[in-house]
Give the backbone structure.
Amino acid sequence: MKKGYFRAQDNAPEPLRCQVERVVRFEEVDALSIVWHGRYPSYCEDGRVMLGNKYGLGYMDFYHHKVIAPIKQMHVDYRLPLQFGDKFTIEAILHWSDAARLNHEFILRNEAGEITTTGYSVQLFMDLEQNVLLLPPPFYAEFRQRWQAGELV
């Protein structure tokens, strides 16, 4: 695989990872029986939600701390098509950032283990009045301390 989307920062802990298994459903394909390109953000969302739930960074975890984390940027690179009935995995990877943001990378692999799709998303932190937070919110700062100490891997 080519270089990752996010540059490693000095003294950054290992990225956090999670995998989700899926099967391509009929409603996700086009007339050629291949996954419609607009479905891939949804697949990334499946991975992002699973990773968030695994580490206590789900959407509702943020909301309970009066923080929202909307997508600021998303990118997808298509390599090989997925087709109706294909089994595949979505690997979601959260990369360390010193900034007040979430950097997720996504790798989709078919049943043979071939990379079919890669991509990334960047999420900002905002308060409930939709003001951008320039510093990580306190609960996320505490989470980052545990991550940096190696307590999460």
Notes: The longest helix spans residues 40-55. The mean pLDDT is 95. The chain has one domain: 16-148.
